[in-house]
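Recap from last week: sequence in, structure out.
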Amino acid sequence: LMRMALIARASGSPNIQLESNLNGALSELIKIFDGKNLADLSILLDLPGLPELELAQSPVDPIALYKARIFLASFFGRNLVDQIRSVLIKTQDECSLKWPDGQGARKFKKIAWYLLAAGGDIDVRQEAMEAVKADSMTLSRAGLDALKSINCKEREMAMRTFYDLWRDHPVILDTWFFLEASTPRKDALRRVQQLLQHPRFDSKAPNSLRAVLGGFSSNTKAFHSVDGSGYLFLANQVVDIDKKNPITASRIVKVFSRWQSYKDLTKNNMFNTLLNLSKSALSSNTSEVVQQMLLK
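Predicted structure tokens:
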């Protein structure tokens, strides 16, 4: 039902009654669970991700889906704020338990913070920012994920804190690179270009490349920019990476694999990008992947 509501809104025909019914159902579920079985409650509160939504819409309008998801998260966050806050208070001690105990409470806190932040709750921004300093990586990530879509000072402070804490740990720092690259900003493309020149970025490490470019491809409004600049940028990166690491390049380029499923403007921009890529001097691996996508 939640997927139906999101698709309807993204398609320009929002089902207001369904959205209201979903809000009422979630309200009742929070009451019924009463702070227990939080892992199950978290699953019920969580919104379908964009990859799932793209599979359910035809033709796919990625930016409309993104906006619909933000809207519904904000709608639930505003209307369920008191109930969500009540559960957070009840489960505060459980959240502090060492793994594997407290997993359900931490999972609920992740979803709760995201919904509250989307709904405009100012207090949760500070809570999420403070969590980045905590010992729990789960809560640290939960705080960053909650703040990622909100243009606020707490987001920037949380990002800086996470970087300062983990700058000497390359594996964890890849998380920071991904989050920075996937954060929606007006200058998102420029930020990604800066990340590729960052002194801590290892251009020879496949995981680091996937962190930045994978993060960018999940940055919906930047990657799917209507002028095609996001596709062109990624294609240029594929050409450059292919000269040094064809295997990684052939995997990254698969982000264009579903080009035919998108609405006309997006589909045409992706097709033209793939067509230009096919004319580049690519390795046999990457060239084969590009040709196969064009022939679909």
